[in-house]
Amino acid sequence: MSTVTLHIERFDPTVDRKPHMQTYVVEVAEDDRVLDALHEVRWHQDGTLAFRRSCAHGVCGSDAMVVNGHNRLACILLIKDVGHEITIEPMRGLPVLKDLVVDMRQFFDQYRSVQPWLHAEPPPPGSRERLQSPEERARYDDTTKCILCAACTTSCPVYWSNDRFVGPAALVLAHRFLFDSRDEATAQRHDILDGRMAAWGCRTAFNCTDACPRHIKVTQAIEEVRRDILRGGD
Q1: How big is the CA angle at 104 (ends 103 and 105), to the nearest 5 degrees?
Q2: Cβ contacts of residue 135 below 8 Å, gap of 6+?
Q3: Three-state secondary structure call for residue 125
Q4: pTM recorded for the entire structure
Q5: What are the chain's domains?
Q6: How far apart are CA 81 and CA 233, in angstroms?
Q7: Cα 70 to Cα 75: distance, rounded to the nearest angstrom
Q8: Tens digit of pLDDT for each residue in 79-125?
Q9: How far apart are CA 70 and CA 16, in angstroms?
Q10: Is 10 exposed, middle or buried (0-12, 13-18, 19+ CB in 10 A)?
Q11: Counting beta carbons within 10 angstroms of the beta carbon of residue 48, is it exposed (0 to 12), middle (13 to 18) or buried (19 or more)?
């Protein structure tokens, strides 16, 4: 076991005028995760500490937060990889509800705005299912990995300064359906994405790619969306 010092940004809108840092010292094992350290605080020192978590295995994306200045998932980030002096803050660019919990409604509204679902007419009665070759499926495989944690979007400097920008996560999901060979709404998707608050809002800072816990090539996906718009889907 070893000692870790956590500096956690605290904010309770019912009593606080502005956020403040609070320090906790906990004992953890070297192969423990940042989430384990937060549990130690919540379960044994301060039950008022608020943060999200669900699966705790890097799949649900609910425990994204800023750890030592970088957007990360607390459940897959090991203590030994960040050191024994850890600063934890809520994700930037979204309203803070309490402590490390941010309001995700804006994020999900922007996600829905790109219509992240398949547009396709039902196949004729008695016909086979919509077939797709391995090559066609591989075309958008990378962007199917998104878990909607918002780590990419809340690391984006464009998003910080303009919350009308849909953000990297929405564009990643737009890519996933734009390049699906079964989808029949290319023109409609281009109309949605062809604007300064969508595909052309990105300034290629690569923060989003660095922040993605699933290692999605986010910036590349956005660039591929732009090229498809310019080509008209050909």
Answers
A1: 100
A2: none
A3: coil
A4: 0.93
A5: 2-102 (3.10.20.30), 105-231 (1.10.1060.10)
A6: 43
A7: 14
A8: 999 999 999 999 999 999 999 999 999 999 999 999 999 999 888 78
A9: 25
A10: middle
A11: exposed
